[in-house]
């Protein structure tokens, strides 16, 4: 797929000397979902704000659909829909009217049928005549998404889209995002819910202290950095790791009732069969065996801690 966004050596520094972004380069493919992860203050929102034309970069370039965000601002911005982290909508305006008004801001002609389609896709049609002040927090966030989609953008930025939304509503919104991707919209989201990124994203980008540490296909990332852990629960407590077992590979738990072995699940030989044979040969009775796969949260924390 062609690139819809091209970010080249992007930087942002403030007069105080703080570097919000430090030489970030990233290509985003048309029709993908990419999740940007990072701790608070990492630079995620700054990156989105620059692409959307809300913050002026110190250096570097950004092109959206081939249009430079500074020299072809109007053409670039028309391709973008933004759902900000903060909920800021007209409190006493009706839902349908506020979405239609946003469409007009982009110079688009009225299209009641399309507005209805957007509202229905977000389960807002029944609330079309309600004032936004009467809506729950989750519904207000849906209105923000509807406003961002009002002018049919090619790219949609979701900055913490499910913050403050209950689990059931969050999963419904995941379905909406997947349908948008199926319709050809490119989705870039930031989130603190790592299971959200793991569930939805095609690629994962990790930002920390203004630097893009990596951006990889999710399956490749999980395969390269994710490891499996085998826990062997013992019938009787051990005071020390049995002689002959490699302490670099096998650890005895603090309570002495488990042996913990980390291994590469993609390796040709995991070493599990040999380990279990060694344990049995030493007369150690095994009560149970369990495995644990590294999650995206484990990988993210390891990456951020390594670069801290």
From TrEMBL:
<dbReference type="GO" id="GO:0005524">
    <property type="term" value="F:ATP binding"/>
</dbReference>
<protein>
    <submittedName>
        <fullName>ABC transporter ATP-binding protein</fullName>
    </submittedName>
</protein>
<dbReference type="Pfam" id="PF00005">
    <property type="entry name" value="ABC_tran"/>
</dbReference>
<keyword id="KW-0067">ATP-binding</keyword>
<keyword id="KW-0813">Transport</keyword>
<keyword id="KW-0547">Nucleotide-binding</keyword>
<dbReference type="InterPro" id="IPR003439">
    <property type="entry name" value="ABC_transporter-like_ATP-bd"/>
</dbReference>
<dbReference type="InterPro" id="IPR017871">
    <property type="entry name" value="ABC_transporter-like_CS"/>
</dbReference>
<feature type="domain" description="ABC transporter">
    <location>
        <begin position="5"/>
        <end position="234"/>
    </location>
</feature>
<dbReference type="InterPro" id="IPR003593">
    <property type="entry name" value="AAA+_ATPase"/>
</dbReference>
<dbReference type="InterPro" id="IPR027417">
    <property type="entry name" value="P-loop_NTPase"/>
</dbReference>
<dbReference type="InterPro" id="IPR050763">
    <property type="entry name" value="ABC_transporter_ATP-binding"/>
</dbReference>
């Amino acid at each position: 797929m062609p690139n819809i966004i091209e970010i080249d050596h992007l930087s942002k520094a403030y007069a105080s000397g703080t570097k919000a972004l430090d030489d970030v380069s990233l290509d985003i493919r048309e029709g993908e979902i990419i999740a940007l992860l990072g701790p608070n203050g990492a630079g995620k929102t700054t990156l989105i704000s620059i692409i959307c034309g809300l913050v002026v970069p110190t250096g570097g370039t950004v092109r959206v659909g081939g249009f430079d965000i500074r020299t072809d601002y109007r053409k670039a911005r028309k391709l973008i829909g933004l759902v900000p982290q903060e909920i800021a909508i007209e409190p006493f305006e009706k839902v349908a009217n506020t979405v239609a008004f946003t469409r007009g801001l982009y110079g688009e002609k009225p299209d009641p049928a399309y507005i209805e389609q957007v509202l229905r896709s977000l389960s807002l049609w029944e609330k079309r005549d309600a004032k936004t002040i009467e809506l729950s927090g989750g519904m207000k966030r849906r209105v923000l998404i509807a406003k961002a989609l009002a002018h049919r953008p090619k790219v949609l930025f979701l900055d913490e889209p499910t913050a403050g939304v209950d689990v059931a509503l969050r999963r419904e919104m995941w379905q909406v995002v997947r349908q948008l991707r199926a319709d050809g919209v490119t989705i870039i989201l930031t989130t603190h819910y790592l299971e959200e990124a793991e569930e939805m994203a095609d690629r994962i980008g990790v930002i920390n202290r203004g630097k893009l540490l990596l951006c990889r296909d999710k399956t490749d990332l999980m395969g390269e950095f994710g490891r499996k852990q085998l826990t062997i629960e013992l019938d009787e407590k051990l005071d020390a790791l049995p002689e002959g077992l490699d302490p670099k590979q096998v650890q005895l738990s603090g309570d002495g009732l488990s042996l913990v072995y980390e291994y590469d699940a993609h390796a040709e030989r995991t070493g599990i069969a040999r380990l279990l044979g060694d344990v049995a040969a030493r007369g150690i009775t095994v009560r149970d065996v369990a495995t644990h796969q590294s999650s995206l949260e484990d990988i993210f924390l390891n990456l951020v801690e390594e670069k801290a």
